[in-house]
Amino acid sequence: MQPLPWPAEDMSGRLLAWYGRNGRDLPWRRTRDPYRIWLSEIMLQQTGVTAVIPYYERFLAAFPSIAALAAASLDQVFELWAGLGYYRRARFLHEAACRVMSEHQGRFPDQLDVIMALPGIGRSTAGAIVSIAFDRKGPILDGNVRRVLCRLLAVSGAPRSREVEKRLWQLAEMLTPENRAHDYAQAIMDLGATVCTPRRPDCAACPLSALCQAFWQGLQEQLPQRGVRKSVPLVRQVALLMHHHGRYLVRKRPLAGMLGGLWEFPATTVPEDGEPAAAARALLIEEGLSCTLEPVGTVRHAYSHFRVELFLFACQGTAAGRVAEEERRWLSLPELAEWPLHGSHKKALALTLRQG
Ligand code: SF4
To answer: Which of 151, 153, 197, 200 to mutate to test the pocket of ligand 1 (most atoms within 8 A of CB)?
Structure first.
């Protein structure tokens, strides 16, 4: 293992002194409750602090404890998550709360490996919870920390390669102090979020500039190296905006699959060489319905692993066919506005509302 070029305590000492003067006051910083810290960490994945605060507060008002979250239905959880995206995070949060109740007598575990065994909690999130809630050493490697470490030790190479990943975890382990783990975790995340930013890091204001290899080599703008963006496949789908007396038919996606537990208008994928109108007609038959289809527009949406082009067809329906099943509902437009639809179908709803 490559040694550090300076004592780890020198780095953590400078960082902690800076944090004492510059740490951000955030709602989840005013508690040591592991549930609240866990919730904030999950919400902050892929979402910025400013956007998260109102969601965090609303969520806790509805589910003030792990027990309350576990007792809620997944639909209630999705309702409060709507707008944050990446619904898998909400599903795992709910599942993990149920597991804490059933396997840990309602007490959030304090051991890194036990926390990591809960759904949706990776090594870095578990490290953050252990450090912030329990004030014990728990190395973190979220996006902010990754950037700081890549620059501080001039780590080059593809940032997600096994080799770089391994090196960064070693560094995180070596640099995280045994004492003041609570403050250190927040300090290094704050430094990445406010000073060592992705573009134009403010090295002049950085407490680590005297130690920073990227700064001394003028590489701070080049590190971490940019990964090669993989091309994201495009999927063509059709959706039926089936309406009946001002209500629209929606269905729930199976829990086990992608976007599991979220709702959508009846939809299907258009075969590679197929036409959207033909796919919409086939879907209508599959749903046991018959009516005239009217094309009303197209929406596009990017999920994490694919993009969707969704062709929308309106049709006046009857409450016949398979609509009586439990996981299907006829809902009014105001109800749908509050309903946990997934991304592309939210856009389909917005288009429907715009068209009146
Ligand atoms: S000196 Fe600059 S590049 Fe280095 S850690 Fe500080 S802000 Fe980041």
So the answer is: 151
Report the nearest-CA residue for atom 8 of ligand 1: 196
Q: Are residues 61 and 152 in the same domain?
A: yes
Quick: pLDDT tens for 301-338: 988 788 999 999 998 876 555 544 568 899 999 999 98
Statement to judge: residues 18 and 167 lie in one domain:
yes
φ, ψ for residue 235 (rounded to 5)? Answer: -115, 130
How many whole angstroms from 95 Cα to the centroid of ligand 1? Answer: 39
Judgement on whether residues 202 and 328 belong to the same structural domain of the protein: no
SS3 265: coil
For 217-250, how does the pLDDT look when each residue is reduced to its tens digit (9 = 90+)? 999 999 999 877 778 899 999 999 999 888 999 9
Place of tokens 């639809």: 341
Q: Which domain holds residue 103?
A: 8-217
Choose among 124, 223, 224: nearest CA to 176: 124
Q: Which helix (H) or strand (E) segment is 169 a member of?
A: helix 162-175
Low-confidence ranges of the chain (pLDDT < 70): 318-326, 356
